[in-house]
Sequence to fold (351 residues):
Amino acid sequence: MNQYCDTYIKISKDAIVHNARFFKEKSNKKLIAVIKSNAYGHGLIDVANILKDEADIFAVASLDSAITLRQSGITLPILVLNPLSPQYVKNAVEYDIMITVSNLKDVMNIESIYKGKESIQVHLKVDSGMNRMGLKTIKEYKEVLSFIDKSYVVEAVGVYTHFHTADDKTYSKKQQEEFKAIYESYPYPFKYIHLCSTGATLNDLDIEASTHVRVGLGLYGICDSKEVKPALSMYSKIMLKKEVYPNEIVGYNANFKAEKNTWIGVLPCGYSDGIIRKNVGRKVYVDGHYCEVIGSVCMNSMMIKLPHKEVSETVELIGPHVTAIEIATYLETISYEVTTILPPHIKRIFV
Ligand SMILES: Cc1ncc(COP(=O)(O)O)c(C=O)c1O
Fold:
């Protein structure tokens, strides 16, 4: 992590706790906090520590992240959402990590490769329509559960599915029905039953039988709801101010040419800090002014147009005046991507 750099990220602990409580109250279910991909760029271990008294389970994408959490002292149950190669099941068991299984082959492979004494706890993933991972038919589901019933090493503790378009009622209703048909075809005493991500929770897509919601984006407050508080802001500092004159260019490829005398600021951050080149043309906020990103974003620096020479030096790149949702719209992407690409080397300050 860069200790001595003037570009940094600020994270509000209160906002994350507030958001977690909002989703628990809204859903009336327990919380699986999705903290994969470095907690959507917010910082895996810090966010886990902020949420350890609010969440019931943590969900991450990889066994590496799960083991990192354990090694940093996190004792809550942890679920790995992506499939795990059977040769690593022993590592998952060693660190008491739950894994996801998506087909009979996964389970049979675990059974034949894993020779440990303790069983591996698994959540069955049901594919209710997304066609990414999961058991797609009642037949597959029954085969897996009857195999697990006879297994000494695999223990089914959870079942889940994922909505692909949570803001579309028709698709989501169909997915709910698919899930229910599969889930109800083989009664099983699951401890964890979970369907709803952020959008699905906001759109009340849950079923009575579920025990948890599985929320990521909403915890960080960058979803489409007035009830949540954005947790992350990002700042940099003008390291150099200079005046450019008519017809002078700024930055690579002569993308900006001054038409008149113009004050510009140079910042110590660029696309290697998650501010991708497409940010040119969007606004940042400096001392009460919206300032345009000009020229081309470089790897470690970028230039902005200043209203005058005297503005103070702090630059809000993401924050209350330039939100991650607005930036996502400008970049033609989703807010997930705006924060998730912020690399771990940027200093994160938790307040
Ligand atoms: C399987 C699964 N569950 C839950 C989530 C969390 O979704 P959201 O961030 O929209 O709450 C994701 C996000 O990608 C996911 O892949």
